[in-house]
């Protein structure tokens, strides 16, 4: 027991006053013979026992009054385990480690981190005046704390200013750093005070426990005091959104996506009818309910159709629980805008399936496609106003006139997309003369790999051999989807020159035939893109148009050439990690802002990319260009580490065995603290004693 005002204990000597009065008040009566006294003596014998009891009670109550008042003024408190350790071990240099991980945001009305700060303040208050101390706020990347000192105000300020993070806390690393800091104190005693919820993710129990150098240089175990802010709970129930996939939902129409997210229940009780929703701003676009078994996982898929294209910023959410931070996951989704395409049909036919534009038109207007197609023959189509379109497709069309070629060149350089396929109506010399500066590579001549009537045509036809699947255009065609490409047979195809003399080195071959001849070549022209397919898009020169890969490839051509195909890889970054941003062209990144508006460090790289981070907060991070304008295409969402959502706790016995049997378990939590101070009860006892003492005197 300790006393806030020990000098008031001297007043307890006043409790001796009733005893002294009792001793000095004991008189011996003189004997006087008197006959009638016989009657008085007989009456006194009947009341003697009652009077003795009354006098004993009076002396007891008066002693209690004079004893309780000075004890109450001395403000006694029962000593805590940490203080008991101090008494038995003596003064010690102390390091207080405050857990600042995401799990400390768990709240049952009061966040665990707030309880942790109270515990850290109590640990500072419990120190003896001669005990130096230091404070370490433990995060995923902790810094070495300052050496122990006696500036209590500075240490309290560190605790008051501490904030919980959104990442993990490496308590084992923090204990090692704190132990190194304690070695700088000459005091023999060393103490580590751990203020934490004791979740398993914070400890690496396979590593050896912390040690410090003793006075003679030997390694000794410091005293370890565990302050459990979870008040000894067996578990901290929590459910979390641990994964999210966003994929196009072509069956639901243009600009439709399905959101598939995984919900994990880390608690010991099942979760019923948990609300899940997709939200953009304050609007709820889709909502459903899921049941998650205890300790289990459930997936939920919601389909959303966006009314228009552009970069959509939103979040999928769960009904919040005690740890609301992991019940939400933000997303940045590039939704393709509606496209207008002009198809210039160079070989119309009365029979639809033999028409040059039939298969292309069917692919671009299929369900889920955002392309609005206008089909024109070559004579009419080349006279159209190209500025009204996002994409122009020349399908086996004759070479345009000089004026028409100039219009096409201006269209591409101003950001339009141009797709060119060849055929019997394409004259290589005329195309090179009119569109040589626009094509990725000059045309050369037609090669025939096999005639359709040839019995061995199946083995002689050319096939695609090398496809750049790392390019956005062909990215989906991997695994089983690759068969739709490499299985296509080409009877004829156009050979290309090495490169365009007017723009050397600007073209890129994305697919080749077995003999190495280019099948698909692309190039940038001004702000736009041009793609050249060296065979036909009908069935005249190949059977590619009836292959399963044709429809998605034509849609990706439309998206890629108009710049609406997402070329950058999906940015997956967790809180605490860095992210590499790759701006398009000569664009620069000036700043990256976190959801709370603070700036994330950004560093330019020699290859033109930018490294931002480490991120410290989940949610959408906005990117600002050198011109001060937002670059929505580079925005990204940082997510939480699902491991930190697992709030499984390390049993006290396990920690005791890990740190050693001399580990001290501190009394923590409001349940272990008396609701009313002891000195208040002493004052109440004194008042009751005074009341009963007066009652006895009146009787």
Tell me the span between the first and last alpha carbons. Answer: 39 Å
Record the strand order, biggest sheet.
17-16-18-19-25-24-23-21
What is the number of beta strands? Answer: 34
CA-based gyration radius: 42 Å
Task: Summarize the structure in words.
The chain has 699 residues and is an alpha/beta fold. The chain folds into five domains: 87 residues, no CATH class; 163 residues, Rossmann fold; 98 residues, Sandwich (Immunoglobulin-like), CATH 2.60.40.10; 179 residues, Rossmann fold (3-Layer(aba) Sandwich); 67 residues, Sandwich (Immunoglobulin-like). It is 25% helix and 27% strand. It has an eight-stranded mixed sheet, with helices on both faces. A five-stranded parallel sheet has the order 4-3-5-8-34, with helices on both faces. Strands 26-33-32-28-29 form a five-stranded mixed sheet, with no helix packed on it. A hairpin with a 7-residue loop joins strand 9 and strand 10. Helix 2 runs antiparallel to helix 15, helix 4 packs antiparallel against helix 5 and helix 7 packs across helix 13. About 2% of the residues have low confidence.
